[in-house]
Amino acid sequence: MATEARAADAAEARPGTMARPAPGAPDPALAPVPGHGAPAPSMLGTREFSLFYGTHPALKKVSFEVARHSVTAIIGPSGCGKSTLLRSFNRMNDLIPGVRTEGEIRVGGRGVGEVDPVELRRRVGMVFQRPNPFPKSIFENVAFGLRMLGIKDRAELEGRVELGLRRAAIWDEVRDRLERSALQLSGGQQQRVCIARCLAVEPEVILMDEPASALDPTATARIEELVLDLKTSYTILVVTHNMQQAARISDHTVFMLNGELIEHDETPRLFTSPRQKLTEDYITGRFG
Ligand SMILES: Nc1ncnc2c1ncn2[C@@H]1O[C@H](COP(=O)(O)OP(=O)(O)O)[C@@H](O)[C@H]1O
Ligand SMILES: [Mg+2]
Predict the structure, then answer these.
(1) Ion ligand 2: residues, CB < 5 A
(2) 53 Cβ closer than 6 Å to some ligand 1 atom
(3) For the segment 10-44, what is each residue's pLDDT rounded down to a tens digit?
(4) Alpha carbon of 103 to ligand 1 centroid (Å)
(5) Is 194 helix (H, G, I), strand (E, B) or coil?
(6) Pairing mode, if any, of strands 71-75 and 252-257?
(7) What pTM value is reported for the model?
(8) Residue whose CA is closest, atom 14 of ligand 1?
């Protein structure tokens, strides 16, 4: 699918339309700044990152790195800070009054504070737990971000909407009803339309907050397949409370507890021979 999508992308690209790098291609604007900290081969990173809601510490000195074109799962009990951590990468927490942060959070080697939030959110897309299509047509849902970028040309919009839907593995199901309301689709289809909306603006990173937890097992399996397919072109950070799912789809897993990162390792290792007793207790179901 990804190869086909890239071929379609190349066929689609026309001079003078959108001057943006292909998905996954290094973006010069996000290149590591020479001499600024350690060399950063990673796509995402945090160092001693803390976040407070008022006086409540939701993240405590969290440090980890995420390699380009990989999937990292974030697991841990409810309230441990998974969503807060995810939202820190595209500055969505900035929208919450009373939030204060310390330490460093990087995308593509740059501190997120140095990047314009609107541009950051295009590069770092987000998919939520509940599919949240707008009460508009399937086409307009996927075209939404493109219109925000100022693209008006109908042929270009159509090409990019199709590409987003193809990459999200839902084109064949909706190609003959693009003008129908997205709300008429099943939950799993709605979630893939939301993923298409995210992909249409060509992000480099996709943040997914429990993207399948509101879906049935068949729709969940399709989302999992899609994540594995997308990681050839994108860097993915996915929160899940389903440990089997983390084991199936991720290369690395981060285990959080009470705002602290307890363990971060290659997924098979974390699930088969965790280094920390707390991780072992959690994955064996002693709490959570
Ligand atoms: N908007 C907010 N305002 C105040 N506290 C919040 C807010 N969002 C989350 N929290 C608190 O921060 C902690 C982490 O929450 P969250 O990141 O949602 O955890 P998780 O996604 O792991 O369930 C919890 O104690 C939660 O109550
Ligand atoms: Mg959450």
Answers:
(1) 83
(2) yes
(3) 333 333 334 444 554 555 545 444 444 444 479 99
(4) 19
(5) helix
(6) parallel
(7) 0.86
(8) 81
